[in-house]
Amino acid sequence: xxxxTLPFLNRTPRRGQKRKRVVSAWRGRTLTLGVxxxxxxxxxxxxxxxxxxxxxxxxAGYAGQAVFNASAAAGLKVGEVFVVGRRETPRxxxxxxxxxxxxMPILALDxxxxxxxxxTLPxxxxxxVERLLPDTIIVHITERQPLALWQNRGAFALxxxxxxxxxxxxxxxxxxxPVVVGExxxxxxxxxxxxxxxxxxxxxxxxxxxxxxxxxxxxxLDGRLEVRLPEVDPERAWLRFAEFEREHRILExxxxxxxxxxxxxxxxxxxxxxxETRIEARGRDT
Length: 286
Hints:
Elements: E1 3-7, H1 25-52, H2 57-73, E2 80-84, H3 91-98, H4 111-118, E3 124-132, E4 136-143, E5 146-152, E6 155-160, E7 165-166, E8 179-181, H5 185-197, H6 200-203, E9 206-212, E10 216-221, E11 225-228, H7 234-248, E12 255-259, E13 265-270, E14 275-280
Helix pairs in contact: 1-2
């Protein structure tokens, strides 16, 4: 995973300014946290009194904002955001979802709501948000892994292992992924990929898979050979095709159709007008 640092505050003194006296990091952090904690405790006590005394809600809200402002004045404000795991999520979208601003009170960030907003981003599968006082926010995200390109009504989108569709404008980087076609194809893509993975030698030669009637798949290999899988037990049919390929080099022949929908026979069609052959399960031509 990649660590991305988004510095909000420039801590390097400008030319001509005097450099501050060096204080150990632990001592500086302890002092800041101590002052901030004392300030916040005093104001929280005031807020508790306002609530228990029945002060109107609006005034109680002012008290809460005063706590945040005082904490920021004491050093508890956003200075840096560290993001772990970002590869595809655009930086502006991520920062907008976090809803953080440089110098804002770090205690004002609602961790739960920030995480919920991150999960609405197209590429984000899982997320966590933490505060590291006095001034750092740490974000961990797990992004979705695209498995295939989904073609639907002339448009393309990415599909991940959960069947989630990932909108993406620039698809050039994903052109090596197999294409799945069909209205319900995304929901069945993971099962399809798992099926293809059982025969690694053939998997990478599958260029497209068409969902038929919401029940089964037709595979396109090398862009020319169509392999029709059955609705029931497609794993066995895919294994049968792999065995035929090893024994007869089907992909090197002028075969354009290999129909495995029937358990007791295979229908093979060669290039040309209606040149079709039926092969029984035992392997004899009929």
